[in-house]
Design brief:
Length: 314
Amino acid sequence: MNIRRIDLNLLVYLDVLLHERNVTKAAAQLGITQPAMSNGLRRLRDLFEDPLLIRTSDGMSPTQRALELQPQVRDILANIDRAVQPQKDFDALTAQRVFRIMASDYAESTLIAPLLSELSRLAPGITLDILTPSDVRLQDVEQGRVDMLLNRFDEMPQSFHQLTMWEDDFSCLLSVDNPLLSEFNLDNYLLGRHVWVSKTGMGASVGMNPRDAQRVGRVDEALKNIGKTRHIAVFTRHYQVAAQLAQQPDLIVTIPTRLARLQLSNQRVALRSPPFEIPSFELKMAWSPLLQHNSDHQWIRRLLADIARREGQL
């Protein structure tokens, strides 16, 4: 095969098709017509002498050859993007641009405020667009439409770059009027009514069932490991809401320590260590390989990493 005969646009088509696994959606994402995308798929099949995507009862499914090609195509496109990026330094002081960052409630509460403070001093023309996990698909990040993720992740696409910002553990918040506060041990912890708070994954979620709580989140998994369960009175996806609910005299809130410490000046709540062991976790920054060598992106990643190192010492 003569490489000069290959239309590189076909690799873009293949990359999107393998993500969407739907000709209509892939065409819409690239801004072309469905017949044009269908023609592109036909040409791809001829090029690779493989059907690549086969219609099944579950929709379009990739062949083994397509699965082997997917990471190779992603690397090729990333290298092309890197080659055509203009070689210029990022001038933070005069820059006028938007950075779109998907941040969990935890990351937004602990990291975005110090980032904004630094930006007002170093890059006043930069605007942040903070997105929630429910707003973003992994494809949006992979294709560079979202600049980065700030979250804790159990799994991450292998193609993503990532950096650990810091490690955190858990603390409990209780009202100073909570009768369990005077002897805060495991038995009394289990006697209390609890606020469950967690939403770290991406995509829209459905409601929680109390019977399922022990399978979701580090706190309840830790309790399950010692054969215990807690009574959950309310489910929320917002840590700041949970911290406010800690002011109720009959509720216990178990949240990451960095968030709990934001309430230290609140005289209506007290902070205590959990009366059982809960594994710590890492806050990570992740971004697409397409943006790895972008000078704008490199600058804000360095800034975030510096802030995290400074905040991590607190």
